[in-house]
Amino acid sequence: GSSPSCNESADSNGDGAIDLSDGIYLLSYLFLGGPAPASPGPPIEACGPVPADSLLGCEAYSGC
Hints:
The protein has one domain. 20% of the residues lie in helices and 0% in strands. It is built from one helix and no strands. The protein has one helix at 20-32. The two termini are 23 Å apart.
């Protein structure tokens, strides 16, 4: 598959990395009643340039 244009939206568990633990986090939510992942992308009022301290980056997000 292709990489997302907004890597931050793929970090389901919020640990600053895109890895297997993100998939496990989502499966835990779906099938075991784990905590819900945060909404992907920035809130609409925060749309704009990605902060300099962002580890993953977000080139484009269709919600903005």
